[in-house]
Design goal:
The protein is an alpha/beta fold. It has two domains: about 20-50 and about 290-390, Aspartate Aminotransferase, domain 1; about 55-290, 3-Layer(aba) Sandwich (Aspartate Aminotransferase, domain 2), CATH 3.40.640.10. It is about 45% helix and about 15% strand. It contains 14 helices and 14 strands. The chain has helices at about 1-15, 55-70, 85-95, 105-120, 135-140, 155-165, 190-195, 220-225, 250-260, 265, 275-290, 290-310, 330-340, 370-390; strands spanning about 25, 30-35, 40, 100-105, 125-130, 145-150, 170-175, 200-205, 230-235, 245-250, 320-325, 345, 350, 360-365. The strands form three sheets. It has a seven-stranded mixed beta sheet, sandwiched between helices. Strands 1-2-3-12 form a four-stranded mixed beta sheet. A three-stranded antiparallel beta sheet has the order 11-14-13. Helix 2 (about 55-70) packs antiparallel against helix 11 (about 275-290), helix 3 (about 85-95) runs parallel beside helix 11 and helix 4 (about 105-120) packs parallel to helix 5. The two termini are about 40 Å apart.
Amino acid sequence: MERMKQFLLEREKAGTLRRLSPLTRLGHGWVRLLDYEDELKDFSSNDYLALSEHPEVIGASRKYLEMFGAGAGAARLMSGDLEINHLLEEEIAQLKSKEAALTFGSGYLANTGIIPALAGRGDLIIADRLSHASIYDGCMLSGARTIRFRHNDLEHLEQILHEKRNEFNRALVVVESIYSMDGDRCPLADLVSLKKRYSFLLMVDEAHATGLYGENGSGIIEEDNVSDGVDIAMGTFGKALGSYGAYAAASRDIIDFLVNRAGTFIYSTALPPAVIGANLAALYLVKTEPQLRLDLHQKVAFFKKQLRKNGIKDDPGPSQIIPIMIGDSAKALAIAEELQKNHIYVKAVRPPTVPEGSARLRFSITRHHQEPDLKKCAQLLSKALRTISD
């Protein structure tokens, strides 16, 4: 117990102690914190297309709840394998241009199930240094030798492959198409070209790209036209698709293998029917209403323009995730608190979620944001940065 208390005290002194912040969602991107009276505009949500509030998504969720009940009742390999699971997987496979797909309870469960299934002792995993924590937890669980390559540095990746590949049975390279804390993109086309010179499986996490990029909203894999070179496309339903759960899309052989080897799939209760209904409706909207993502990209471009107009020089990157680098954790918290006083809700992201000395405010733009919201936010952010720095 003393060790736990000391850990928490050290985190608090360093400005990196995590605390939960209970809130109520008020609709249209507004929230109210339990201990704070004012309404706040949410700039931390990953509900990029605002589909969590879309009438068709809510209606489908309600319909499936009434038709099939509140829960699946069991894991898929027992009696929880409702037909609607297969319908959802067929839709995902089609979206990702793969033979088959498999759903998981969450993105974390997907990564910690897929990676240990594909690699084990005697194998090599090479992952981007800024990969999500769930990817590294999956690597740790696998027992495989894991090496991190410098972020988006394919020359470093090739150096590792050249020096180490022949020492191991199999090799797995894992990247994200859009990185969740930096908002930048992986050079997937160059990575697939590298794959042609070395023998490895390529897994791409599209959690923050699914629904937002590509002609059909499939993601960066589609936009960069590299589907044939990606062995496993993983993604989630809990971000742009507005619901919950995750998936892997791959060849039929890989999916059948995961059904037999991915522990987080085998031993987890299936997705609730209401969630499956919401996911199916969201996929339909992504496929039939491209204006949803076009609208989002316009809002992102407008916000970046407002940041520049207000003297914020950070390079925001190419995506809807816009990190404002602060460095010091206490300063990042202070700026977030200053913005909250002005009805802007944005979280300070601090170590160990991000590397030491790289605390930041992570702004996430969604279709809930209107131009006046974005303009006001940029102005207030500029003022807070000056106030806290002085």
